[in-house]
């Protein structure tokens, strides 16, 4: 390859632009363009360093564009470059469309999530209002006393299970199973003998209703499949019974001194015994 042509291609110089002529110019137009540029940048007309460099470039442009073989090579390079640029532009446009579609999809997803959150919030408010209404109706039906002293009485129950493996029940597993009845404030284990058929622990519920529900439950009918998947679900099958610890159920019988939780708990026990 001609060295001048190689330098032009390496530097990506537009020879037609240097001479100020279009790409389909005839040889006469190219020579005319050269003469016009030479009048400006010839060393006899312009002695600046920049003019000297420019004059060398237009001289190279005349040599390449004035030689059919070199001009064909240069024009082929120009066409190939233009095709690459057009293809790159098409790819960029496609990427831009894809990016815009992705942004639109993300915005639509965000709007849907916000709408779902709004609906979930409205449903939560509605459930809360329904719960309040149901409590008012239950309170009216049970004729609960109008109490002013609402300090709940903690209650302790004794939970028993079949002993298959020492230490098979942990505090976390007991809490996971028994929290369905009410809030638990404390769990502790006595010293169980490995040889005992049954082991047990003590559970302190924060209010009386939790203890009542725990003692009224028929543990033989609990379905592990309806519980969270894990060890606690399978352990439910080992539970046998739950009973009050006598010292924890010394209830006040004056309805004016009872909390609602105590009154409801005592009512449930009376219904169970009848």
Automatic annotation (TrEMBL):
Signal peptide: none annotated. GO terms for molecular function: RNA binding. Keywords: Chaperone, Coiled coil, Cytoplasm, Nucleus. SUPFAM superfamilies: Chaperone J-domain, RNA-binding domain, RBD. GO terms for biological process: spliceosomal complex disassembly. PROSITE patterns: DNAJ_2. Residues 77-123 form a coiled coil. It comes from the Eukaryota. GO terms for cellular component: cytoplasm; spliceosomal complex. The keyword Cell division does not apply. It is found in: Cytoplasm; Nucleus. SMART domains: DnaJ. Residues 14-78 form the J domain. Its main location: cytoplasm. InterPro entries: DnaJ_domain, J_dom_sf, Nucleotide-bd_a/b_plait_sf, Pre-mRNA-splicing_ERAD, RBD_domain_sf, RRM_dom. This is J domain-containing protein.
């Amino acid at each position: 390859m001609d060295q001048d042509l190689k330098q032009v291609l390496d530097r990506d110089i537009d020879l037609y632009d240097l001479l100020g002529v279009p790409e389909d110019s005839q040889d006469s137009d190219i020579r005319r363009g050269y003469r016009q540029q030479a009048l400006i940048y010839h060393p006899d007309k312009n002695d600046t360093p920049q003019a000297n460099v420019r004059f060398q470039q237009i001289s190279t442009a005349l040599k390449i564009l004035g030689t059919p073989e070199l001009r064909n090579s240069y024009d082929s390079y120009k066409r190939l470059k233009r095709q690459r640029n057009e293809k790159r532009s098409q790819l960029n446009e496609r990427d831009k469309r894809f990016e815009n579609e992705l942004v639109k999809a993300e915005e639509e997803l965000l709007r849907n999530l916000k709408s779902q959150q709004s609906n979930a919030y409205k449903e939560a408010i509605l459930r809360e209002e329904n719960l309040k209404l149901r409590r008012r109706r239950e309170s009216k039906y049970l004729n609960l006393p109008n109490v002013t002293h609402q300090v709940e009485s903690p209650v302790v129950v004794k939970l028993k299970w079949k002993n298959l493996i020492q230490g098979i029940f942990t505090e976390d597993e007991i809490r996971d199973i028994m929290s369905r009845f009410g809030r638990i404030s404390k769990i502790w284990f006595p010293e169980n003998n490995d040889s005992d058929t049954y082991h047990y622990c003590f559970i302190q519920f924060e209010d009386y209703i939790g203890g009542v529900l725990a003692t009224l439950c028929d543990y033989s009918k609990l379905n592990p499949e309806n519980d969270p998947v894990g060890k606690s679900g399978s352990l439910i099958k080992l539970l046998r019974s739950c009973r009050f610890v006598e010292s924890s159920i010394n209830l006040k019988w004056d309805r004016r001194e009872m909390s609602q939780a105590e009154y409801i708990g005592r009512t449930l026990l009376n219904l169970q015994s009848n």
